[in-house]
Recover the amino acids of this structure.
């Protein structure tokens, strides 16, 4: 990589893979927020419901780690979704001070509707890239994630 004599970073710094990932994630998140808002849901709610669906019984701390957010953020989201009747806490079978998180029927219904919206966004991307390039991009992003985890 070439260092730019005029500044602290290389001239092509904004053309890096990491910036492309950031721009893409930002665009996708903004579209999710826009399209989920009419459902009374934020993208963070969708992510939390999806993660609990995929791993029922997670604790708040485990959920925070998997979503890469603070435990306080998870606690706030959990409380909000619990108030909506979409999430419930159940006692852990072995640890009396630990509570597991589970979707309620209302949570499953909300997730189903929200996931249809997110699937439309996925389809928009696939339509633009074509199915083969979309599958290739998915594989490449998986490889990139693995490369970062290896360090």
């Amino acid at each position: 990589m070439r260092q730019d004599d005029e500044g602290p970073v290389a001239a092509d710094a904004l053309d890096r893979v990491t910036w492309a990932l950031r721009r893409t994630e930002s665009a996708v998140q903004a579209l999710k927020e826009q399209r989920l808002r009419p459902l009374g849901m934020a993208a963070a709610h969708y992510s939390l419901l999806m993660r609990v669906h995929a791993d029922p019984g997670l604790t708040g701390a485990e959920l925070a780690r998997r979503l890469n957010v603070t435990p306080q953020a998870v606690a706030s989201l959990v409380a909000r979704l619990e108030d909506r009747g979409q999430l419930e806490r159940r006692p852990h079978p072995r640890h009396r001070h630990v509570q597991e998180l589970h979707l309620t029927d209302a949570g499953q219904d909300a997730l189903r509707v929200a996931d249809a919206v997110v699937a439309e966004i996925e389809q928009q991307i696939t339509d633009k890239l074509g199915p083969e390039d979309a599958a290739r991009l998915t594989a490449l992003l998986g490889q990139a994630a693995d490369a970062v985890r290896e360090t």
The longest strand covers residues 87-91. Helices lie at 17-36, 43-54, 60-67, 71-83, 105-129, 131-149. The chain is about 65% helix and 5% strand. The chain has a mean pLDDT of 93.
